[in-house]
Write a structure and sequence with these properties.
The chain has 362 residues and is α+β, with helices and mostly antiparallel strands. Helices cover 40% and strands 22% of the residues. Helix 3 packs parallel to helix 5. Keywords: DNA damage, DNA recombination, DNA repair, DNA-binding.
Length: 362
């Protein structure tokens, strides 16, 4: 890989010669601008507005336009003598935990290659120190006409540097969150957690640029004089009005895509997980219906109690009839039995027994 910058890492009193190499590359498909009538290329030409002629690259330099429109020429020699210690040096200023770095600050990524045999030992020392500390190095460096902030970390056996935006270059997300007050209940959070668990993790190496692949198919078909492939019909989904139903349906779809079977009871829940409009408002009638149900339960209890009372009365009546028969058959001894039965009947205070006792007294 070709280096784009040569310099050194300043690590306290240690200096490590390094070469800066791009860690990423673009695979995007680029287009040319053409004249649609004759397919001629449309090119941009660099023209001097004072002389009205095209100029070559060797004639082009840098200049800063002042507020009043004055152009101040800046040469490569001027940039080479900037009064900065980071002009040709990546100066490490601190070591911090990796989670202190906000991903919003991440910019371009580079690899730092050791610059020759003398750099091997200090390069390895810095790499192993970063590994053991579980920290990253914060550094300042100058590249392409400006001083930048960077983060050094270990990637396999190499040291990588991520360009960082300065803190004042990251905008605050003020006014972006919803203004409407929303309440999220525990069941909705549980379903969201279940969906996250079902989707699980993925190996990032399995991901690829489907847009680029589709674009390559279109280019190949056009080159062969064939019709480009048709866009597949997007799946039609219902309008999501019920968040709970949408979450349940998403969990089920994720499980199906991973070949997982439904757990017992999920088939019944699935029927209620369809994304559908919310039912018409009938909540005002829900309370009277519940009240009616309670009345029905109370009536049932009263009916049961009435049945028990009737059964007790029948049993008492049978006992009284048995006592009368014994009295008529037993004479004097029976009188004692009648007296005992009368006392029992009075103790229970059953209307039927009181009636029987009055008849026996008469």
């Amino acid at each position: 890989m070709r280096s784009i910058w040569n310099g050194a890492i300043s690590f306290g009193l240690v200096s490590i010669p390094i070469k800066l190499v791009n860690a990423t590359e673009s695979h995007s498909i680029s287009f040319r601008q053409i004249h649609t009538e004759d397919m001629g290329r449309i090119r941009y030409r660099k023209v001097c507005e004072l002389e009205d002629r095209e100029v070559s690259t060797s004639e082009i330099g840098k200049g800063y336009e002042d507020a009043d429109g004055t152009i101040i020429p800046i040469t490569d020699e001027d940039l080479a003598h900037l009064p900065l210690p980071t002009a040709k040096t990546i100066e490490i200023v601190a070591f911090v935990p990796a989670d202190r770095i906000d991903p919003l600050q991440m910019d371009a990524a580079y690899y730092l290659a050791a610059g020759g045999a003398p750099a091997a030992k200090p390069y390895t020392l810095l790499r192993e120190a970063l590994k053991r500390s579980n920290k990253v190095a914060i550094a300042k460096y100058a590249l392409r006409g400006r001083e930048r902030l960077g983060m050094l970390r270990v990637v396999e056996d190499a040291i990588a540097m991520h360009g960082l935006l300065w803190p004042d270059e990251v905008r605050a997300p003020q006014g972006l969150a919803p203004d409407t007050k929303v309440t999220i209940n525990d069941k909705e959070l549980d379903l969201a957690d279940a969906l996250m668990d079902t989707l699980g993790e993925i190996d990032l190496d399995d991901l690829h640029d489907e847009y680029r692949e589709a674009l390559e198919e279109v280019v190949a078909a056009k080159a062969a004089g064939e019709a480009p492939p048709q866009t597949p019909e997007p799946a039609r989904g219902g309008k999501v009005l019920d968040l709970m139903a949408a979450l349940e349906k998403s969990v089920r779809a994720a499980k199906e895509s991973r070949g997982e079977e439904e757990a017992p009871g999920e088939e019944e829940a699935r029927e209620h997980a369809e994304v559908r409009p919310l039912p018409a408002r009938k909540s005002a009638r829900a309370t009277p219906k519940q009240a009616g149900g309670k009345k029905s339960t109370s009536t049932a209890k009263k009916s049961t109690a009435a049945k028990k009372t009737t059964a007790a009365k029948k049993t008492t009546a049978k006992s009284a009839q048995g006592a009368r028969k014994t009295a008529s058959a037993g004479g004097t001894g029976t009188a004692s039995a009648r007296s005992t039965a009368a006392k029992k009947t009075t103790a229970k205070k059953t209307p039927a027994k009181k009636t029987a006792a009055r008849k026996r007294t008469a």
